[in-house]
Design goal:
single chain; 135 residues; alpha+beta; four-stranded antiparallel β-sheet; 24% strand
């Protein structure tokens, strides 16, 4: 009886982990922008642009996630940050890029972004979750 309960518990926990994308080590695409805030701008302005990106993605049915990294060691230039945007898969990223850049849905966002920050680099990576106990 204890064996059956244990097996049932393990199966249900692993199913729950995969249901919210935990436990998956499939790499997903992310884009990073290494930037410095423009004169008079704050991270609240970056958050505003992030909300605009989220709205464009939502209207197109493209699931995205965003993070802002600010250094507390190393290059601590005032206003320095990295913005990272992620997608669940390469097809999703491609659809999102097509909508945002090619079809023009992101034109207003890019105008606001250029007014908010000056970015030295933009890079594309794959990322996979190896361990996460923050949830």
């Amino acid at each position: 009886m204890i064996k059956q309960i244990s097996v049932g518990l393990m199966l249900s926990l692993s199913t729950m982990a995969f249901a919210d994308d935990h436990g998956s080590s499939s790499p997903g695409p992310v884009e990073t922008w290494n930037c410095v805030l423009n004169e008079g701008k704050t991270l609240d302005d970056v958050r505003k642009v992030g909300a605009m990106v989220a709205e464009v993605g939502k209207a197109a049915g493209d699931p995205i996630a965003q993070w802002v990294f600010t250094p507390f060691t190393g290059d601590m230039e005032a206003g320095r940050f990295v913005l990272m945007t992620g997608w669940p898969s390469f097809p999703s990223m491609g659809s999102s890029f097509g909508n945002f850049f090619t079809d023009g849905a992101g034109d207003d966002v890019m105008v606001e972004w250029a007014a908010t920050a000056t970015c030295e680099t933009r890079n594309l990576y794959t990322v996979e979750e190896l361990h996460n106990t923050l949830d």
